[in-house]
Structure to design on (716 residues):
């Protein structure tokens, strides 16, 4: 484990026979997929696993992941104890979308001298919405010489990092609009449920009012990150209530049937304004059997840039890859609470993971 | 001017009243456009200009740039003398595509304690083709505490940096193919001439054999950079002779008429191989009245990524923007010979340039 008092980044000092040691904090759907992806990589090992789910605690991680072998790692619900017994380089953290929920967990990791890469959406750029929590995490990370990063496919990449990178050939940027158009029928059933698939419009609105349907978490953070990269001081960021997308014909997905007139999914929109003008628009659209899947970035400026990922990027695979690929970059980074705009150029870590660590 | 002996990066220590001070080394077509773009930015000033062209030396830069005002900067052909008389933070260097030609110029800047951002294509990733020159520049830059970067739209962005960034959501990368499809009729006349527009096929082949037509410079460097980012050890990189694209009808451009059967432009292809398999293919295609302009990146892996910039990015504007936007990133970077994969996430510097300097 890293020294808990060093004021500068504790250099990850592996010997080539050794591997990067990871603790998986949260082995739910995404955390589990990340764990499986790590197991397929060379030069990296899972040395601990944390989860609060009763059916997982005390079991071998291999069993929890549905593998037909034991990994010799027992899932625990006591991270404190785990951290004091196990040496690790980094925590892969996947428990919640909301910063106030993950804050004590992140702090716990940092105080144990562990670097953190987290899928927490609100951690991807927390400085505007949660300046105080962000500042506390940053200060503590600096004190303990570790790096904390929130990432994922979105927020973390498609709407923010990639938009930022696409401004690089621009002399002027007037307006950025990003649209993620997803076929939810191809996604996990909990995701389909979360976006209200199959509900009546009235049920959707009811659930939205009760915050059961929240829309996409992270649009605010993506807008903040783009603005920060461009040096834009925004007047405000507006997050609109998610709108239901109504099926124009009878639909069927692996989750449910959607009669014509019922909800096929939703649209989440957020906008950033500067000098009273709309300058950033993010559209997150996910519904069953969308005619075309894509991720599109349109920059108006000099020159205009019209970029599109045809077919889009699958959310779960993308998030798993973003997190795994961020591991060496986090290990190399300066200490502190960083964001995707601060760490090294994103790229895939496809070979032995140790070669990417400086 | 920076100290000439500091072994670590000399921090750019502006006071907010001051501005970033630039010397323009080479004020030809691209260098001139960059100078004009810098003049439009806040927080940055041109304090010196170098060119060897007799018709420019001794004239005011404003006149050379075709502006209707004087800038109080006289173009000189003696950089040595300029560097010893003028304080500056960075040299914007635009003289040649070839490293052996620019090497003494870069060395001169470094020895004057000046950071460098250059459009020299072969400087964008020189470690494979010119390991010795690269190592010497790197060592000297470290000795003098300055940063040297080669960038531009291509190499520097469209085929390499953007490809690298697009691998970030991938767990596996098997193959990368990039195609830049340009309508040369919309480009500068020297560019149209350089790619053989209007020649007969025989004339094209003759000029190609005599190295008058060289095809696109930088494919080798882009392949090297992608491979380095992914940690791929390539067996070899093949650069193929440029192939003429034959007009299938009579064409006309601002440069010339192209009768059917004559050369409308060219196609430059390069390939990178690993373990005897083709893993990177770059296609640079530029001819008059190409049916569709675009920049496309296709990654085969997990997941597949199919990305396209519809309409493409204009080469000259893009290169100008890449260089201008790189200035604060170079000032912030660690010393040494760096590449686009090493410096901070690329982005547009659209506000007062000083706010981007840490």
């Amino acid at each position: 484990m890293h020294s808990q008092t060093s004021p500068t980044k504790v250099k990850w000092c592996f010997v080539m026979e050794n591997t990067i040691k990871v603790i998986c904090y949260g082995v739910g759907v995404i955390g589990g997929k990340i764990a499986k992806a790590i197991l397929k990589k060379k030069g990296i090992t899972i040395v601990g696993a944390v989860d609060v789910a009763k059916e997982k605690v005390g079991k071998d991680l291999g069993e929890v992941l549905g593998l037909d072998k034991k990994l010799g790692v027992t899932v625990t619900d006591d991270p404190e104890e785990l951290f004091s017994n196990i040496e690790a380089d980094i925590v892969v953290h996947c428990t919640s979308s909301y910063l106030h929920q993950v804050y004590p967990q992140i702090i716990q990791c940092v105080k144990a001298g562990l670097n953190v890469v987290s899928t927490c959406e609100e951690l991807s750029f927390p400085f505007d919405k949660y300046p105080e929590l962000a500042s506390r995490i940053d200060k503590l990370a600096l004190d303990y010489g570790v790096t904390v990063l929130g990432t994922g496919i979105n927020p973390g990449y498609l709407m923010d990092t990639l938009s930022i990178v696409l401004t690089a050939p621009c002399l002027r940027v007037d307006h950025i609009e990003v649209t993620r158009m997803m076929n939810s029928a191809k996604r996990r059933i909990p995701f389909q449920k979360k976006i209200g698939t199959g509900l009546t419009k009235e049920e959707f609105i009811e659930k939205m009012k009760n915050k059961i349907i929240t829309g996409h978490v992270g649009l605010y953070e993506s807008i903040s990150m783009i603005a920060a990269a461009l040096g834009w001081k925004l007047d405000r960021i507006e997050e609109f209530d998610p709108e239901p997308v109504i099926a124009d014909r009878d639909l069927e997905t692996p989750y449910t049937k959607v009669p014509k007139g019922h909800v096929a999914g939703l649209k989440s929109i957020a906008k950033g304004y500067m000098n009273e003008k709309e300058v950033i628009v993010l559209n997150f659209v996910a519904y069953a059997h969308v005619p075309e899947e894509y991720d599109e970035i349109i920059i108006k400026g000099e020159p205009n840039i019209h970029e599109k990922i045809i077919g889009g990027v699958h959310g779960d695979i993308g998030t798993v890859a973003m997190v795994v690929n961020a591991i060496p970059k986090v290990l190399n980074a300066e200490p502190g609470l960083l964001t995707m705009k601060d760490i090294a150029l994103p790229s895939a870590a496809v070979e032995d993971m140790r070669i990417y660590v400086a």
In short: Chain A touches chain B through 55 residues (CB under 8 Å). The radius of gyration of chain A is 21 Å.
